TrEMBL record:
GO cellular component: plasma membrane
Entry EC number(s): 2.4.-.-
GO molecular function, one term: CDP-glycerol glycerophosphotransferase activity
Organism: Holdemanella biformis DSM 3989
One Pfam short name: Glycos_transf_2
Entries under InterPro entries matching the protein: Glycerophosphate_synth, Glyco_trans_2-like, Nucleotide-diphossugar_trans, TagF_C, TagF_N, Teichoic_Acid_Biosynth
Top-rank lineage group of the source organism: Bacteria
Bilayer disposition of the protein: Peripheral membrane protein
Protein name as annotated: Glycosyltransferase, group 2 family protein
Locations listed in the record: Cell membrane
Length: 745
């Protein structure tokens, strides 16, 4: 007999399932059987099953026609299991190498349940471990939380001691009470003694799609006679970062969900003792759900169901709560529940208002920055829209550059006085042609977000922006995509895990999206799931590369920057790395290019123009390289820098798509390409065969390439031509003109 039977239901998302199996194969504990139960999958997973059949002692079952759901899968698993212990594993989650081993090691007597820890993540194992190693989980914060948990535990034990001994109370606390919210009411992460489960005939209720866990877990906890905690046994529960295309069960939208929640609670109650502590916990969870989540919906939701049918349904469930449950709630929550039980909607609403009002007050008190948002919602958004006002923003107001700059200048030159132009710029520096400058996230900024008719942004609008009817949003974006973006990106490591969900809403507010080439058009449609109007005229930011006076501009700029007349220039413009950051929007950059070596070998002929990405917070130390390295990281506009660059070196930045308009040589210093491609981002085009220059892996190779640049030009001539035709085909110096004529008719 195997020690553990792992029960693994599979419904969809093969790539997660694959990862789950890969991680399980790395488990140091091997004495388990794997019971895979298929819930009518539509993806072809035969290859996976075949591959892992030889790795595990694996049995595969399929649910019969007409039967579906995770509850049914798990019941089949329980029925077929032969192991001493049961372990439920979901196909989109994973365990760490030592999870199972640690649990089994700790068992020194016969126990009904061994409960481990659940850690939540949005990432695959490599990125999850990276975050843990880099202590992105704040230790102080963790200690504080652990302390709070212990306080709550001792409170819980003293309160529940009338029925259970301390060990069991602790088990109930950890598996029911301590796991945040009713949503994470889960059977995952624990080992269950199979004998105990079978003896007590414990099963999942198959009528419930979302809330079946409580129907198994609650009676189990009530019958528990012994339990053991193993904190080092971590179950990694993964949230899906794409709830639009790949929702997890917990993210699925289904109008039946709410009623099911109430039904499941009511059904589970029938399995429990009226005055038992498990019943107490169950009731407490539904009360907490009501006062913290549902109440908000009763007040704010556009959907009237929350004030009618759902309100009634919740009231019915709430009629059944044990009276002592309410003793532990604050006065306002107690009143809210009492009003609900009396079917008094107005009463509930007034309690919610009070609760939210107090919350808002404390938020303002703690962070005065929210004041401008309140002004935005409650004052500015009620003012009329100003028909001729345009708000411009580039890279979160860090500089005056990119396509919004060129669109603005075109308007200023060709329609003087017609529009009131406003620029968001954090350092408040002046811009030509007299636009008003406002700081991002200030009262004035909030004001113009509310009243401007037009918006020209090269990044996303703030999350709190709500587009008003009549407003026109032009999104220029900021580069032809080489690295995978948003919905085409499997892992989201650097942005908020809710990135895709937020993006989905934000892109619906765009009326126009600028595309520099047919490739971008196609890619943006997929990666942004964008269905709106595409402006396919090239990038306004590249107009300058075609202007007739571009040589004069270059000459003036070289002079302004003090670049010696007799030297050629090498622009080094790398991008940022998703996994190397200090805080939000602040990234580390370690220079991997040996500038000293370059100086030694190249300084007779060249100087280097160093330009880091605007996300990079590190100031690159160029001591000892004076006169050879010019750090232009703070210079507003990279398009102007292209004009004075003879060679461009980048890595995975989109800069080369733009620079190629000049038909000057491009080199790729891709020292970490494997990691970037496989772990961090992935690419849309093959860097080995499609980019217009060589991939170089060491500083020596870079130096040699520059010394032999004519040879490289010759070697890459054909590929460069093809690349130019494919990516620079729209740019002709008139993108701003076309866009302005189309948008501002
Ligand atoms: N940029 C710059 N200096 C750098 C790197 C980038 O000025 N060292 C500017 C360029 O205009 C570039 C833009 O920032 O085109 C975007 O930078 P990327 O390195 O391509 O990275 P990212 O901001 O992630 O945008 O579709 C494009 C993608 O969204 C990439």
């Amino acid at each position: 007999m195997r020690t553990i039977s792992i029960i693994l239901p599979f419904f969809k998302y093969k790539h997660y399932f694959k990862e789950c199996l890969q991680n399980l194969a790395q488990s140091t504990f091997k004495d388990f059987e794997l019971i895979v139960v298929l819930d009518h999958p539509t993806e072809d997973i035969d290859d996976l099953l075949e591959q892992y059949n030889s790795v595990f002692d694996m049995k595969v079952y399929a649910l019969p026609e007409g039967v579906t759901g995770v509850a049914a899968c798990r019941n089949v698993g329980i029925q077929e299991a032969k192991g001493a212990y049961l372990y439920f594993l979901d196909s989109d989650d994973y365990v760490l190498e030592d999870t199972l081993q640690n649990m089994i090691k700790a068992i020194d007597h016969d126990v009904d349940m061994v409960y481990g820890m659940i850690n939540h993540t949005w990432n695959n194992k490599a990125n999850y471990l990276h975050k843990i190693e880099n202590k992105e989980v704040d230790e102080e914060d963790q200690e504080e939380r652990e302390q709070q948990r212990l306080n709550r535990l001792s409170d819980f034990i003293s309160f529940s001691s009338y029925e259970k001994d301390e060990q069991q109370a602790k088990a109930i606390f950890y598996t029911m009470d301590n796991r945040k919210g009713i949503r994470t009411f889960t059977v995952l992460g624990n080992l269950y003694n199979r004998d105990f489960v079978v003896r007590n005939n414990l099963k999942f209720n198959e009528n419930f799609r979302y809330y079946c866990d409580m129907t198994f877990m609650c009676p189990l906890l009530e019958k528990l006679t012994s339990a053991l905690q193993v904190e080092e046994a971590i179950y990694v529960k993964r949230k899906h970062n794409d709830p639009i295309n790949e929702p997890a069960l917990s993210q699925e939208e289904n109008e039946n969900r709410f009623n099911e929640r109430c039904d499941a609670v009511e059904y589970t109650r029938t399995l429990l003792k009226e005055e038992g502590v498990v019943r107490f916990c169950l009731d407490r969870k539904i009360v907490s759900y009501f006062v913290s989540q549902m109440a908000k919906k009763i007040r704010r939701s556009q959907d009237d169901l929350w004030r009618t049918e759902y309100f009634e349904r919740m009231a019915k469930t709430m009629d059944g709560i044990r009276p002592e449950v309410m003793n532990r709630y604050k006065r306002n929550s107690r009143k809210m529940v009492a009003y609900l039980q009396n079917r008094d909607l107005k009463g509930v609403q007034s309690c919610v208002r009070r609760k939210l009002g107090i919350k808002k007050f404390f938020r303002i008190f703690k962070n005065k920055n929210v004041l401008f948002k309140l002004a935005y919602y409650h004052v500015y958004s009620k003012k009329p829209i100003q028909e001729n006002t345009i708000l411009f923003e580039t890279f979160m107001a860090k500089n005056y550059s990119d396509s919004p700059k060129y669109i603005y200048e075109y308007i200023a030159k060709n329609y003087p006085g017609k529009y009131k132009c406003v620029w968001a710029l954090n350092d408040g520096h002046e811009v030509p042609y007299g636009a008003e400058v406002v700081k991002r996230f200030s009262f004035k900024y909030a004001y113009y977000l509310a009243v401007s008719k037009y918006f020209v942004f090269n990044v996303r609008q703030p999350l709190w922006y709500r587009k008003r009817e009549g407003q026109v949003f032009v999104e220029t974006w900021h580069g032809t995509p080489l690295k995978r973006l948003v919905f085409d990106q499997e892992e989201v490591t650097s942005a908020s895990p809710k990135y895709k969900q937020q993006f989905y809403r934000q892109r619906q507010e765009w009326d126009y999206l600028v595309s520099a080439n047919p490739f971008s058009t196609k890619t943006f449609r997929s990666c942004f799931m964008y269905e709106g109007k595409m402006l396919e005229y090239g990038y306004p930011r590249n107009d300058i590369l075609y202007w007739p006076n571009k040589d004069q501009i270059a000459k003036d700029l070289r002079k302004k920057l003090g670049i010696p007349e007799d030297k050629k220039t090498i622009l080094y413009a790398p991008t940022w790395r998703d996994d190397e950051h200090y805080g939000k929007g602040e990234y580390k950059f370690t220079l991997a290019l040996d500038l000293k070596l370059m100086m030694e070998k190249l300084s007779d002929e060249y100087v280097v123009l160093l330009r880091t990405h605007h996300y990079i917070a590190d100031n690159i130390d160029t001591t000892g390289l004076e006169g050879f390295v010019y750090n232009l990281s703070k210079y507003d506009d990279i398009s102007e820098i292209y004009l004075i660059s003879d060679i461009c070196i980048t890595d995975y930045s989109s800069v080369f798509f733009d620079f190629a308009n000049l038909k000057r040589p491009v080199l790729f210093y891709t020292y970490d390409i494997e990691k970037y491609k496989n772990q961090l981002r992935g690419f849309y085009i093959d860097m080995n065969t499609e980019v217009p220059g060589p991939l170089l892996y060491t500083s020596e190779e870079v130096v040699n390439a520059i010394l032999n640049i004519d040879q490289i030009n010759e070697e890459y001539k054909e590929r460069y031509e093809e690349f130019y035709k494919r990516f620079c085909c729209y740019d002709d110096g008139n993108a701003s003109k076309h866009i302005v004529e189309e948008v501002f008719k």
